[in-house]
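# nightly structure sweep
# worker-07 picked up a monomer target from the shared queue
# config: single-sequence mode, recycle default, output format = structure tokens
# input follows
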Amino acid sequence: MASTFSTRLKIELIGDGEQAGSWGTTTNNNLNQSLEQAIAGVLTIATTGTGTTTLTTGNGPQAQADNQARQAALRFTSSEATHTVQYPAVEKLYLLINGSSSCTFTHRLGASGNTITLGPNRTKFVATDGTNWFELEIEPAYVEKTTTYTAVAGDNIFADTSGGAFTITLPSSPSQGDEVSFIDAEGTFDTNNLTVEPGSEKIMANTAGDEMVVDTNNAAFTLVYQDSDFGWRFREK
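# output follows
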């Protein structure tokens, strides 16, 4: 009986009586390629364009590039604004790293399955049962901004207005529970105000599009999105 391959990691399973005198080589390759990649493999994938990249899933021991989907950690780069990455619909743990400062990646299970997004310079530790994604807790990332910026859900922003006032725009098309946090990095919000722009959404149920001007030195606060009626709300009072 010829070899078969495991569903999740595509490990070669030697058939009865097969590979006489060479099964040891296959076994060693399974260990130092297939299993090591799944446990400790870190692979950078440079995507191009705004379309879809389908991860490779080669059978048996393979170079990392020939079975991208079994790597433990995947780091994506792109110069585009958006890109989609398609995964096989099988159970797996992944550490997903967005190595781009401009691209938001959509991670899709199967041809048309469940998705999650990963904003610029973000990292997520996730699990999938082959149907759904489950985000596992990871330490939040912080970014420092000194000029106009459009925030991404999950941003923790040190806003440095010591060089002049500027505006941070909240994420467009937010989902309930999306959060953005702000910290006055230099204690200069009174002298040089920070303006928070909600786009077409509301802040604290005010008129859609009304900006919020922050003029209190050393202010620190978080806005969380509720819905189209109330918009972005303070998480702390």
